[in-house]
């Protein structure tokens, strides 16, 4: 070994080998084994990298879905999608392919430096004096690149958000003729990304230029100092040739480590946002709390001294001391001007938000103590502008069930008939297999609302909340439909004409927009009402509550 690395080094060995012998050594069985190992490690590295990216995306998506609704109020969808796609891919590449190359370069440099000290400690010490300045440059460059990568990824997220929003609402853009304006906006976003990438390119070129210069300095210093040592008889030609080979080896390794370090800093810059999302704990519990007995659950609702303001607008209170009681089995209509808090009642009841103070109870149990997933499983909700998924009508309706895969076509058809949707669905060539397009864009507003009503009814909820869900559909709540609905039914802002005359509540009085409301449920039956139906009307300081319990069938 000493003869190999010191005497005349490899030069002596190669000169003594005959050409056939050298060819035999190169193409011998060990070499073929190395090729096989190289193939194995590259395959394993690629597979491992994809596995890491897959796990990272799954964990990130799970963390996003567990966040409270207030988180999505202040976080753009395009930004989250960009984190799921581009940031995870960049981080995955940094910790897999790049990491393996970096470790290989580190190992190669370590062996090379060790051999340099073995051949000539004095020359190795002199040559490696260029490393400390290079390390300082690397630290400065790494911090700058990490910050720059984070800014670049944020800018890409903004561009993705703009593109996603405008393409998703292309009909609005086309209607107002804003195509050129949107092109300019997107071009401006992309230009900002381009400027950041230009800065990154300049920084990378400077850093790699410095590392390349250091490699050349190592070789030049070997020739200069080695020549002096040879002239003083402290080093032979063989030792210098061996040392030069190891120095070249170290120089190549420094280039590999530079690339590794650069990509690692980019990955850490992109990963900083991912770690924030992965480590973020939701402000509201996701799947914790008490699960009530479904067979004994009746659906009575009670709001007591509720104060609330949206987290994104804390200076604008929605409720200041709201008191509202809705007995189990009753039908209530809540009417009021826009912004009076009708939809907020639903959000609080579903525990999408928690009140600042006060309590909201179901069957006497504070909703903050109830498991949110279970609570939402017994409540059916239909919004004024329901969102459908880009799949078939049958799949959209089946989405409301606890286990959509077990829903039969008969169940889907039954709730579609209750929602008065089966007629127009069956008029389509593909019937219930008709694909509705992104967000249900291929259907009218009324058709989407009826499908959403059917979707909520399929889960057989104990409580049904309709947020002006019949404003576009023309659906009338007849007596037959009422018997199919859950025993507790709260209708937000439904016009009286949406109700069958037999079940119509008293005409609501237009109220001013204020922030507090109180309602009490009367127990006495008014004999003077037509058909023996109980009708009540309460004047409130907030959204007006009109309640009607299910009494005896009208004669």
UniProtKB/TrEMBL annotation:
**Composition bias type Basic and acidic residues, residue spans:** 510-555
Which InterPro entries does the protein's record reference? AAA+_ATPase (IPR003593), ABC1_TM_dom (IPR011527), ABC1_TM_sf (IPR036640), ABC_transporter-like_ATP-bd (IPR003439), ABC_transporter-like_CS (IPR017871), P-loop_NTPase (IPR027417), Type_1_exporter (IPR039421)
- GO molecular function ontology, one term from the record: ATP binding
Gene Ontology BP terms: oligopeptide export from mitochondrion
Limits of the ABC transporter domain: 301-549
Q: List the SUPFAM superfamilies.
A: ABC transporter transmembrane region, P-loop containing nucleoside triphosphate hydrolases
Q: Mind telling me which residue stretches traverse the membrane in this protein?
A: 126-145, 206-224, 244-264
Q: Topology versus the membrane, per the UniProt entry?
A: Multi-pass membrane protein
Major localization class: membrane
Keywords from UniProt, A to Z, are:
ATP-binding, Membrane, Mitochondrion, Mitochondrion inner membrane, Nucleotide-binding, Transit peptide, Transmembrane, Transmembrane helix
Q: Which residues form the signal peptide?
A: none
Query: Where found, per UniProt?
Result: Membrane
Q: What is this protein called?
A: ATP-binding cassette sub-family B member 10, mitochondrial
Question: What is the species of this protein?
Answer: Pleurodeles waltl (Iberian ribbed newt)
Task: Cite the source lineage.
Answer: Eukaryota, Metazoa, Chordata, Craniata, Vertebrata
């Amino acid at each position: 070994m000493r003869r190999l690395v010191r005497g005349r080094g490899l030069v002596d060995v190669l000169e003594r080998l005959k050409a056939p012998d050298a060819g035999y050594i190169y193409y011998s069985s060990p070499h073929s084994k190395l090729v096989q190992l190289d193939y194995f490690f590259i395959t394993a590295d690629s597979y491992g990298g994809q596995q890491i990216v897959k796990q990272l995306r799954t964990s990130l998506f799970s963390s996003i879905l567990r966040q409270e609704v207030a988180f999505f109020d202040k976080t753009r969808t395009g930004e989250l999608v960009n984190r799921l796609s581009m940031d995870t891919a960049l981080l995955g590449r940094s910790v897999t392919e790049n990491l393996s190359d970096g470790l290989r370069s580190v190992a190669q440099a370590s062996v090379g430096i060790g051999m340099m000290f073995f051949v000539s400690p004095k020359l190795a010490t002199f040559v490696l004096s260029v490393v400390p300045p290079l390390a300082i440059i690397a630290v400065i460059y790494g911090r700058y690149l990490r910050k720059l990568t984070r800014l670049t990824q944020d800018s890409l997220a903004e561009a993705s958000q703009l593109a996603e929003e405008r393409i998703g609402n292309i009909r609005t853009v086309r209607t107002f003729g804003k195509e050129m304006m949107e092109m300019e906006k997107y071009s401006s976003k992309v230009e900002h990304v381009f400027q950041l990438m230009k800065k990154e390119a300049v920084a990378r070129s400077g850093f790699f230029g410095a590392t390349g210069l250091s490699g050349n300095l190592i070789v030049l210093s070997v020739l200069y100092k080695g020549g002096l040592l040879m002239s003083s008889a402290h080093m032979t030609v063989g030792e210098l040739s061996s040392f030069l080979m190891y120095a070249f080896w170290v120089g190549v390794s420094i280039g590999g480590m530079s690339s590794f370090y650069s990509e690692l800093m980019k990955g850490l810059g992109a990963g900083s946002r991912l770690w924030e999302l992965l480590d973020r704990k939701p402000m509201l519990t996701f799947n914790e709390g008490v699960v009530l007995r479904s067979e004994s659950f009746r659906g009575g609702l009670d709001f007591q001294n509720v104060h609330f303001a949206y987290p994104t607008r804390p200076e604008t209170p929605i409720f200041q001391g709201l008191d509202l009681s809705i007995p189990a089995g009753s039908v209530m209509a809540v009417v009021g001007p826009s912004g009076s808090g009708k939809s907020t009642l639903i959000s609080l009841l579903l525990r999408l938000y928690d009140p600042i103070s006060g309590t909201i109870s179901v069957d006497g149990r504070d909703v903050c103590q109830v498991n949110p997933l279970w609570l939402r499983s017994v409540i059916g909700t239909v919004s004024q502008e329901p969102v459908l998924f880009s799949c078939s009508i049958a799949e959209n309706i089946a989405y409301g069930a606890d286990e959509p895969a077990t829903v039969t076509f008969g169940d889907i058809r039954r709730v579609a008939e209750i929602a008065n949707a089966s007629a127009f669905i069956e008029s389509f060539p593909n019937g219930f297999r008709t694909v509705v397009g992104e967000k249900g864009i291929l259907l009218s507003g009324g058709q989407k609302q009826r499908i959403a009503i059917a979707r909520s009814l399929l889960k057989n909820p104990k409580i049904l909340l309709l947020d002006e869900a019949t404003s576009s559909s023309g659906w009338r709540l007849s007596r037959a439909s009422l018997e199919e609905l859950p025993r507790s039914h709260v209708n937000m802002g439904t016009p009286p004409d949406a109700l069958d005359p037999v079940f119509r509540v008293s005409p609501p009085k237009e109220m001013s927009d204020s922030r507090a409301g109180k309602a009490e449920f009367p127990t006495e039956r008014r004999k003077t009402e037509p058909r023996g139906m109980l009708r009540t009307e309460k004047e409130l300081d907030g959204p007006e509550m009109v309640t009607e319990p299910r009494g005896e069938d009208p004669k």
